[in-house]
Specification:
Helix 2 packs across helix 5 and helix 3 crosses helix 4. The chain is of the alpha/beta class and 245 residues long. The longest helix has 24 residues. It is built from 7 helices and 6 strands.
Amino acid sequence: MHLETETWTDVADAETDLALLPVGSTEQHGPHAPLGTDTLDAEAVADAAAEQYDDPVVVAPAIPVGIAEEHREFSGTLWTTESTFRSYVRDVVGSLASHGWDRVVVVNGHGGNIAALREVTTRIVRHDDAYAVPFTWFDEVDEHTSEMGHAGPLETSLLRHANPETVHEDRLEEAADGSSDRWGDWQGRVNLAVDSHEFTENGVVGDPRESSADLGEELLDLSAAALCKLLDAVRERDPQARIDG
């Protein structure tokens, strides 16, 4: 059940306490993929899991602007501060909980959001009348997780499967030519770079020529299945439970 397409009278009858909140970013993804890549991919995973899950799940509208100042030199990138982002996510989760959907999985599509989502969901569990956990889709695709870059084969593949009209396939060669092999500029285990333009010419990390719609379908299947298992765990979880010893 997608909130933005339903009436309030219909959602009032939703017999569930489970909700998915997609979170993405509006930021550069090279010359071949849209600024909304992270949001589109998070929405695709959330939609697939909600459709596959045995019981009803409320899907909230996506949060499309995240922590993305590292891409500020590339036109169209939008960002917010970590504190604003955390407050916004917390407010939305609180809104969902006020209607009884108080077990929320935040479905994330942007690496820059990960630390803030871990912190804010912890704060929600400790201090609010809700239980929330973060889920980053590209961390849940088995061995493919190690291939994650930026606008590289994973993100581009998921787009080519779920939103193929958004990918400029005629620019994949250009995207690969200006890409970096690795995120950052490293000295030992220290990343010397602050922003992405310091190590990638066109914003791409990885080779999007290795993407395909078939790989995207596999990624969607893996991440949606993992999300469904997480929904089971969240539904059964007692956040007040403790081990007595």
